[in-house]
Design a protein that fits this description.
Mean pLDDT: 93
Number of helices: 3
Strand content: 25-35%
Helix content: 10-25%
CATH architecture: Alpha-Beta Complex
CATH superfamily: Inorganic pyrophosphatase
Distance between the termini: 30 Å
Oligomer: single chain
Number of strands: 10
CATH class: Alpha Beta
Length: 203
């Protein structure tokens, strides 16, 4: 029996086994780990590819958008060099937040995301950028081309979430959002993360 390409006999690793996207860096794949309905921070286990409970959220903060990563990206020295106040990349796949008009209430899904901008986040002196995108075929947001095409409140909520989601009472957290950037810079970050991935893991 023959199978149509592409066919995976076994489940591919979501970081290493999926494609970057149909037209990177403009339209990329987003593998969703967390939805706006989650009060638990889930994260793909880097070794097995299965979803792992990272931690329950300590505060009332909930993610304001779908949250995951772009497959076959890596935040290494190139990504770190694009962030003036970081010492290096954080060594993880590049994070992405995706805005959708219709609620998506399940994780471990893949979607096509149109890149519109990003947040330049520094976490313990490491570049931890958050790409901002819209669901590519969304009926309301799908034609947005740049960050200024989104209501400011969407970006404000994302910024507030990432500035506060690691807060622990009586403990200092070294997290900052140094800039909100447009699509052009976001695409530079994505290209850098693809090149960092090739350096780290091969093509």
């Amino acid at each position: 029996m023959s199978f149509p390409p592409p066919f995976y006999r076994w489940r591919p690793h979501p970081w290493h086994g999926l494609e970057v996207g149909p037209n990177p860096p403009s339209i990329v794949h987003a593998y969703i780990e967390i939805t706006p309905f989650d009060l638990i921070k889930y994260e793909v286990d880097k070794q097995t590819g299965y979803m792992r409970v990272d931690r329950p959220q300590r505060t009332s903060s909930q993610p304001p958008a779908l949250y995951g990563f772009i497959p076959r990206t890596y935040c290494g020295h190139r990504v770190g060099a694009l962030s003036e106040n970081s010492k290096k990349g954080d060594g993880d796949p590049l994070d992405i937040c995706v805005i959708s008009e219709r609620p998506v209430d399940r994780s471990e899904v893949i979607l096509n995301a149109r890149v519109v901008g990003g947040l330049q986040m520094i976490d313990d002196d490491e570049a931890d950028d958050k790409i901002i995108a819209v669901l590519a075929n969304d009926n309301v947001w799908g034609k947005v081309e740049d960050i200024d095409g989104l209501p400011k409140i969407f970006v404000d909520r994302l910024r507030h979430y990432f500035e506060t989601y690691k807060l622990i009472p009586d403990k200092e957290v070294n997290v900052s959002i140094d800039a909100v950037y447009d699509r052009v810079h976001a695409e530079k970050v994505i290209k850098a993360s693809i090149e960092d991935y090739i350096d780290e893991y091969g093509g």
